[in-house]
Amino acid sequence: MSIANNLNTIKSTLPEHVTLVAVSKTKPVSDLMEAYNAGQRIFGENKIQEMAEKHETMPKDIKWHMIGHVQTNKVKYMASFVDLIHGVESLKLLKEINKQAKKHNRIIDCLLQIKIASEDSKFGMSPEDAKSILQLETLSEFKHVNIVGVMGMATFTDNQNQVQQEFKLLKATFDALKSLNKGLHTISMGMSGDYPLAIASGSTMVRVGSSIFGARNYAI
Ligand SMILES: *Cc1c(COP(=O)(O)O)cnc(C)c1O
């Protein structure tokens, strides 16, 4: 199967309200261009430097999503172009994104990453932390960030029941946050192995990598 075929097959199964982020981390620009030429315009990367390099060389109508863990001191390398930052997990990071976006006279869309997995390795804040960020009186002073929703990663397990419970927790968190901020509209959840379940649980944005581009080789 070609990248274009994989992409079209996946797209044909997605409901209209679900946005597909093509996760292209570790993949060469030639692979991304195959997806681009098949119509894909949203790409997700998890390393800021790799994303910045690809942004440099690729067409400028691409929307670049940062889906990985973000170190505060690296926000400046993507502030001029990043379209959506999925992994905002602290107020400190939100402040830094605001500061760097201001330098470029931009407003950067952000998702609050919620820890829904039982594994220790997954990043994210608690639903309570997310609530307190949205309730901050000083949030209105952050004029260069726009919180548009939540992101989460389920536990890496074959137990579909557990994955579903975690997705439902993210959806419930989103609903609770939306009562505080009517502007929220995005629930980023679901990857190659679990995106149909994520969509059934309320996802509006899926991040799919290996099902489009094939398995990643981290050894090279
Ligand atoms: C790599 C990655 C994905 C995509 O994973 P696949 O299983 O290849 O679809 C999705 N989300 C995040 C945060 C990732 O790091």
Model description:
The protein is α/β, with parallel strands linked by helices. Helices cover 36% and strands 17% of the residues. The chain contains 8 helices and 8 strands, in the order αβαβαββαβαβαβαβα. The protein has an 8-stranded parallel sheet. Helix 2 links the parallel strand 1 and strand 2. The model has no long low-confidence stretch (mean pLDDT 96). The structure holds pyridoxal-5'-phosphate. Pyridoxal-5'-phosphate (PLP) binds next to strand 8 and helix 8.
Task: Record keyword descriptors for this entry.
single chain; 220 residues; alpha/beta; eight-stranded parallel sheet; 36% helix; binds pyridoxal-5'-phosphate
Secondary-structure blueprint:
Layout: H1 3-13, E1 19-23, H2 29-37, E2 42-45, H3 48-57, E3 63-66, E4 84-88, H4 91-103, E5 108-113, H5 127-134, E6 145-151, H6 160-178, E7 186-188, H7 195-200, E8 205-208, H8 210-213
Parallel strand pairs: 1-2, 1-8, 2-3, 3-4, 4-5, 5-6, 6-7
Pyridoxal-5'-phosphate (PLP) binds at residues 23, 25, 46, 67-68, 153, 191-193, 207-211.
Question: Which secondary-structure class do the elements indicate?
Answer: alpha/beta
- Shape type: globular
Question: What value does the Rg take, in angstroms?
Answer: 17 Å
Largest sheet: 8 strands, parallel
Strand numbers in spatial order across the main sheet: 7-6-5-4-3-2-1-8
What is the number of strand segments? 8
Mean pLDDT score: 96
Distance between the termini: 23 Å
Strand residue percentage: 15-25%
User: What share of the residues lie within helices?
Assistant: 25-40%
